[in-house]
Amino acid sequence: MRPILVWLLLTLPAGAQTLPPADVYVLGEVHDNPTHHAVQARLVAGIDPAAVVFEMLTQDQAGRIAPDTPRDADTLDALLDWSGGGWPDMAMYAPIMAASDAPILGAAGPAGELGAYGLEGPLPPEQQAGREALQQAAHCGALPDDALLRFVARQRAMDARFAAHVLRALKDHGPPVVLIAGNGHARADWGVPAAIARVRPDLRVVSVVQGEGEEMPPADVILHAPAPERGDPCVAFR
Predict the structure, then answer these.
(1) I need a labelling partner for 124 at 20 to 30 A (CA). Which of 35, 94, 100, 166 fits?
(2) pLDDT, tens digit, 9 for 90 and up, residues 79-114
(3) Structural domain of residue 194, as residue ranges?
C-alpha cells in the first residue's frame, strides 16, 4: 500500500481522517506529543475497535479497568499508578482510552512462547546496522558499541511481545484490534506489523506513524503535527 502523507494541524476537524479496513491497526506516536494522542483518540473513535492494547500497560494494570470504570485522567492515573511509570501525563492518554468502550489491554510483560517470531536468528547486516544507528541516535550517541546489540535485541523482543499480545486480543475479542505504541514499534518494515505478518500473513494490518516534520519510517499512513516545546533530551546523557 502506498503511504498516505498528511500534515495534521491542531484544528483538524473530527472525522477528517479515515483509515483503510483492517484486522489490526498499529497507531504510532512520539510519546510526549499531545497532538499525536489527540489524533489517536479520533482514530480509535472512528475504528470502533473490539479491543485496544497499550504498550504502556502491563496486563495487571489493564485488568484494573472494569467495564464501568470512569475513563477520565484522574481516575485512571490513580487506578493504574500511572504517574510513577515514567510515561507522559495521563491527560494525554485518557482520551484514547475513553474514545471507545472497548476493553483496555496491556502489551508490557511476558507474552508466552515467541519462537515463531525468529528472534534467535540474526538480522540482515544492513538492517542490523540501521537499527544500531537508530538506537545510538535515540540515546544521543552515548551508548558504548557493545550495548547496541543488546538494545537492538531488546527492541526486537518488544515487537514480538507486542505482536503476541495483539494476536491474543484478536483471538479473545475479534477484530479490529488497535495497538497504541511508539513510532519505532509501528513502523511497517520491521516493527510490530512485520512481526504479525511473520506469524499471521493472512491478517490485514494498517500501520500509522506520526512525526513532527522529519523523515519517517515506512508505514501505511504517515502523519505530521507540530512538535511541543521540550528541553534538550541529551542533557541526561552528559
Answers:
(1) 166
(2) 999 998 999 999 999 999 999 999 999 999 999 999
(3) 4-230
